[in-house]
Amino acid sequence: MGWERPGGWGAAVRKVQGQAMFRVFKRAWMALLLIVVIALGAYAVVRIRDTFGANGGLASGEANADNTKPFNPKHITYEISGAAPGGSVDVDYLDENGQPHLVDSAPLPWSFTVVTTLPSMSANVVAQSSTAVDDAIRCRVIVDGQVRDDRHSDEYQPFIYCLVKSV
Fold this sequence. Notes:
Blueprint: H1 9-52, E1 74-82, E2 88-94, E3 100-107, E4 110-116, E5 123-129, E6 137-143, E7 146-153, E8 159-164
């Protein structure tokens, strides 16, 4: 009774169990591979975040609201002048928000100052003289006391523009 012949019932049972395991593995290998790949990816992300110190919690803006560094606002001055005083020009300029404004028949010399705390803006002024001004006109853009653009035109009914791409 305790004696089994080689290749008897024990070997047959083990063979059937091996085939059943192979069938289960054959059906579930894709899901098992997916679980392994996700686990390795999660591990890699955690390691990278730890390496670069990205695990700190998100800071709320309220804690840093009083910790602002002082800065100086920028003063941008648009100037239009003519050789003969008393003439007028039509002026278009950009304000601190980038919105265009039109000034019809502005007397010469014309000047306008924009004060902004924005980190960057574009300064643009365009002028065209009326028929009464046949002399030269000049435009300048001055940022914090430094002339950034200076142009002139001496044509008949001159058209002029000054542009500073980044103030």
